[in-house]
Write a structure and sequence with these properties.
Blueprint lengths: L1 H21 L3 H70 L9 H21 L2 E4 L12 E8 L8 E6 L1 E4 L2 E4 L1 E8 L2
Parallel strand pairs: 2-6
Antiparallel strand pairs: 1-4, 3-6, 4-5
């Protein structure tokens, strides 16, 4: 029985210790709530400030990117125009020369060939390549512009009969599709 009394006495001591811990102290709770509110407001202010800093940084980066894109485009156009101006100057020099009226057809053909080579070089410098298809190749609407020719031969359906004019692409992007004559089967 003494054991039970000791045990119950221990339980009383433990419960009274817990009770002391659980009793709310209003002043302490009020202080904790006020500190928590203040810390919440500080955190909210910090987050708002960080969002503003991030937004400002993104805006500056967008402006800088636009500047570089525009500058890059301007430099590309300037380079292209300088090359076109050079070809024009060469052609104009020839047309306004004293020998223009007396030039033979062979001389004019030679000068024309030079101009064609200059323009081809210009396109190559800009990674623009001409392309053309062979008769019998399959028609591909992503790189061809079709002119249709009706055929009664089903095996010729959607096959290229002839290339009418070259296409041009820069890398994988088609700038000008190739014009082709394409068979279309009709029974």
């Amino acid at each position: 029985m003494e054991d039970q009394e000791n045990k119950s006495g221990d339980n009383e001591n433990e419960s009274s210790g817990l009770t002391d811990l659980k009793e709310p102290n209003i002043e302490e709770l009020t202080e904790i709530v006020l500190n928590t509110r203040e810390q919440g407001q500080m955190l909210e202010s910090f987050i708002k400030n960080q969002i503003e800093v991030k937004d400002d940084m993104i805006n500056r980066l967008h402006k800088e990117l636009d500047y570089y894109k525009q500058d890059s485009a301007d430099r590309f156009v300037d380079q292209l125009m300088k090359a076109v101006i050079k070809v024009r100057k060469d052609m104009l020099r020839l047309v306004t020369s004293e020998n223009w009226e007396s030039m033979s057809a062979d001389d004019i053909r030679r000068e024309y060939q030079y101009s064609l080579e200059d323009i081809t070089d210009l396109l190559e410098q800009q990674n623009v390549d001409p392309y053309s298809s062979n008769p019998g190749d399959d028609f591909d609407p992503s790189i061809h512009q079709a002119k249709i020719e009706v055929t009664d031969d089903e095996s010729q359906d959607k096959k290229i009969k002839a290339s009418l004019s070259e296409g041009y692409r820069k890398g994988k992007k088609v700038l000008i599709p190739e014009r082709v004559l394409v068979y279309q089967y009709k029974a």
